[in-house]
């Protein structure tokens, strides 16, 4: 059950406000509207919203002053500014005052929706506290009281208040982002933004622009100046997830930023001072990447100072019963199952599994088991059925992918084809985006969120592959 996100739209043009409100409501947002800057400021100060969208030119109080005052009152609240062509410098000034980002009019609705989705996610990461321990009911929690997890809690406390870069290492699904957020929330930067970037989910050609921003004309399609994530995170924390997937060229630029504390936007010459703490994470073996010349040695030593290693779930199996009960409580509420229960034998069976996908895999199994058992007590038969089904699906997918890659490599060895890497990536992406948009019933926003890509990337991939299924339900 998705949480309804609330937006405040401040726009004095009644027609434009109504058109924007209808589009946003159709995407599943709850939208309040104000027509003046002063009344919009008062509403935003007294009512909690996930994102504020404001025009620059407003009666009562202009958008620039609104951004300044509202950011001072609620520094974690993302503010998106809409402004007409010719006022880009004013928009940049608004960013310096605390605006999350801005849009130049006229803009495409897809552009607005993509930006709103990013701002909503940023708001969620900042506002939803990460709880830690054994008996926790919050939706975002690090569960476990084992000796290994006690060590993690100590490490979080040790590094949170120190002005140092932190590297979080561990297998996929071990909760690295939750640990990054816990560090942020216990730091002296907790009132400032927390901005997350998944380096593996953004194409290499776009990642530099995402991090550092770009000037107008920096590349084809750059029709306006855009700030990057480092500027958005000013005064706060920038979380670089999957940093091991970053290209060597971008690694070099990141190293310079960490050393010199300023950035250059793409296509720009002006150095821009930045004040953002960096927390990085990766599941990759960085030592092997160093040996294979895929990761820079100087960046490795720059990051490898304060390191937190997240334990695999199989190494802390004593935490599994509490994890299962926690997940049952969270998803039981989502599925309208009051006080779900589980047999001791079923719990023991889950505790004895190897969980190669770690907590993320356990979470998936618990969701399916709850749906299978319904309001009845979860039995060992329920658990065995779901675990077997999940294992078969993973094994079947791996075998299918491996078989396809083997065929292509054999043909390449015989000289029958070239470019195996590009071919495999193309086919996997076609299948991935095709299945996602089918499962989402044509809802591009939902499919993009599942895949961890932007709406713009989703639309470009669908156009590239010629995938255009009908959308039966545009709202989440």
UniProtKB/TrEMBL annotation:
Asked if the keyword Protein biosynthesis belongs to this entry, the reply reads: no
Annotated localization: Cytoplasm
Supply the PROSITE patterns for this chain: RESPONSE_REGULATORY, SIGMA54_INTERACT_1, SIGMA54_INTERACT_2, SIGMA54_INTERACT_3, SIGMA54_INTERACT_4
4-aspartylphosphate (modified residue): where? 55
Q: In what residue span(s) does the Sigma-54 factor interaction domain sit? A: 142-371
Record-level Gene Ontology MF annotations:
ATP binding; sequence-specific DNA binding
Residue ranges of every copy of the Response regulatory domain listed in the record:
6-120
One GO process term, biological-process aspect: regulation of DNA-templated transcription
Looking up PANTHER family in the UniProt record yields: DNA-BINDING TRANSCRIPTIONAL REGULATOR NTRC (PTHR32071:SF95), TRANSCRIPTIONAL REGULATORY PROTEIN (PTHR32071)
Descriptive protein name: DNA-binding transcriptional regulator NtrC
Whose protein is this, by species?
Pedosphaera parvula (strain Ellin514)
